[in-house]
Amino acid sequence: MCSVLEVSRSGYYKWRTAKPSPQATRKALLLQRITYQFNDTGGCYGSPKITILLQREGHKISERTVGKYMRELGLRSCVAKKFRVNTTDSNHTLPVAPNLLNQQFFTEKPNQTWVADITYIPCREGRMYLASVLDLCTREIVGWRLDDRMTTDLVMSALEDAYKAKRPKKGLIHHSDRGSQYASADYRKRLVKYRMKASMSRKGNCYDNACIESFHSLLKKEFVYCTRFKTKKQAYDGIYQYIEFFYNRKRIHGALGYVSPVQFAARFKRKAA
Q1: What is the pTM of this model?
Q2: Using CB atoms within 10 A as the burial measure, which of 4, 23, 24, 236 is most buried?
Q3: Rounded CA separation 69/28 (Å)
């Protein structure tokens, strides 16, 4: 073999016994960790978040280098085209609450302001709708329901789940769009029962409810559009896994200092103790 390749025997044995350089060893380790972090988050993270995770592991590496290595590995975070179905029926004569939130999207403590919305979930067995309730302080989804009908019962069930889980004190601001489900008499009565203050966005202004709109956009980009739901049960199981185990407990959030919503909420529990 050495004769055919025109190399010396001593050179061949030196190559076999030579140890890789420290730089090559470090790069191999980083490539391994980048691949792990990428796959561990279902391909949702790009170079900024993966850089944060690697630095927490003790690696000194820049976002630019992580991006370069990801390109070498052929890794790219989820990117999907926007697909929007209008789920807001504001063409009604029901009472509309004032805009108490007024785009104040940061609160000092949990359970001071919740935002709510409905979004469409495509499924081959039939379309479905997700109603979500998000805490503005922790960005945690505190209540959600998935059903094949966009009814008042759907949004009330999500609110009921949130209330039972968190038991907020009197005066919590509940913000939503002007959809007929949120403006209905039954929903308004439920807010009164829970001692919450109703707040609604201005007509046709999605920016007034930007945080929950952002969550639904994230859910679709990172999971829904990358998955083809054949049955409603598959859709429910997938949404459950994403919200409860990934988004709430694992996915790091830039606005929270790159920790998950549950981790951020735990800080307030420690302070209270």
Answers
A1: 0.83
A2: 236
A3: 10
Residues 6+ apart with CB under 8 A from 193: none
Contact yes or no for 108/212 (Cβ under 8 A): no
User: Among 80, 95, 78, 101, which Cα is nearest to 207's?
Assistant: 101
Look-up of token digits 């001692």: 195
Q: Is 183 helix (H, G, I), strand (E, B) or coil?
A: helix
Task: List Cβ neighbours of 25 (8 Å cut-off, separation of 6 or more).
Answer: none
What lies within 8 Å, CB to CB, of 225 at 6+ separation is: 78, 80, 81, 83
> Is the Cβ–Cβ distance between 44 and 251 less than 8 Å?
yes
What's the length of the chain? 273
In this structure, what token pair is assigned to residue 21? Answer: 């350089």
Residue indicated by tokens 């919305």? 117
Please give the structure tokens belonging to residue 69: 């290595």
Pairing type for strands 128-135 and 113-121 reads: antiparallel
- Residue 142 three-state SS: strand
